[in-house]
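User: We ran a pulldown and think these components assemble together. Before we commit to crystallization trials, I'd like a predicted model of the whole complex to look at. Sequences follow.
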Amino acid sequence: MSPILPGRITPDDDRLMEELTCRRCATTVLVRKNTRTQTSIQWLADAGETCTELAEQRAAGKPTGLVSGCTALRETIEDAVTEGRISVLDEVR
Amino acid sequence: MTAVDEIRSIEAGSAPARFARGWHCVGLASAYRDGKPHGLEAFGTKIVIWAGADGALHALDGYCRHMGGDLSKGQVAGDEVACPFHSWRWGGDGRCKEIPYARRVPPRARTRSWPVLERNGHVFVWHDPEGNPPPDDVTIPEFEGYGSGEWTDWTWSELLVENSHSREIIDNMVDMAHFFYIHKGLPTYFKNVFDGHLATQYYAGTSHEEAATGAPIDIGRFEGQSTKSEATYFGPSYLVDWLDNSYGSMTVSSILITTHYPVTATSFMLQYGMIVKRIPGLDDETMATVAQKMTAMIGEGFLGDVEIWKHKSRIDNPLLCDEDGPVYQLRRWYEQFYVDVADVTPEMTQRFEFEIDTTRAVESWQSELVAAAQAGATVPDEPTAGGV
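Assistant: Here's a predicted model for the assembly, 481 residues in total across the polymer chains.
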């Protein structure tokens, strides 16, 4: 099967994900936003170890795979978009 | 010729020869508790499953190591299974315990035993090509409240899918658009999370009927939609869908299971069933009818999937648009179950999240439905179920 190169969503799409560090626990992830609503997040380590919020959930007995996302990271991404540090691909064409 | 002028070719690849490592659901525990051994064609072989006199479920290779008799055609004798050919008695640990006509059991009388797990009324068999026992961290969780009388009994159906690999049904996890075209749903919120051995789909949506009225549709919202589903694969084959369907002010909460085990490398047994949370004021019989009706509807949906799978090409290089879900990342996640434990890479298990922007899709689908309604075409009146 075609492997996906780091930072890519599909082998046919060369729009790269960008690094972003969460303001709460300094976890670095890769992010890509096609639109204001669409978001892709690639974590680069065990999320339940590096992310404070997900670690709390895990400690409470909930597998991180059952948590829809980290609210601090979501806010970090929203701010990064507002400040232009993460581009919204549909808006820069 | 530039890349955009090139003709796209399908890389079909071929189905893996090995079977996934993991717990595979093989049906309802109650079905195995009838005092008889049961034969199961699975993982390219035959397995015998039975409940001993002590109530514990056991699974062994189906063929007796003596002269090859089919153990599933034999009988349960105490905690053991007796071969129909010469009555050799096999224990759940894989050892021959007794040969009624012999003074001693040959020391080599040991067959393959399959680890068995019972959870939430379901039976699971552990498959690992490397032969390791099941680790605790991939076990199947117990459902909160199950067995408390709060829920109906399981409905259960199965469907043999031939000339197809289970990767096709796994792909559905990320396939937002097929819900509209195959399952008569209209997804308004769609997100995937892959993390460790879990893969989840968050789905919210409305029905074709509702959309056809032209009423405004909430986009990008998970809570409060008429169909709300959180569906998680616990390992390679057991999908648990916490599914709420609202009809006006009434919400029906259910847990829908969609699970499969491979029969051969190119066929699998798809099984599905649900429990429905009891609604105050409705008697047992009515609740059972609700569960049966919903299951039948879901079964219809699977027939739609199977019709596609029967005729489609296997494709290793799908060409995706932005409104498609993360097929490549899902398949990378799925790959962890098809390689040796030592070869599982961090990329296969590291968390990945993908939320689709459904705005354009909803607009397009709603205008299609409204136009069809105005043209007098019939619009399906059944709301959809999420999950696959």
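The CA atoms of residues 64 and 71 of chain B lie 6 Å apart. That may be worth checking against your pulldown data before setting up trials.

User: Thanks, that helps.
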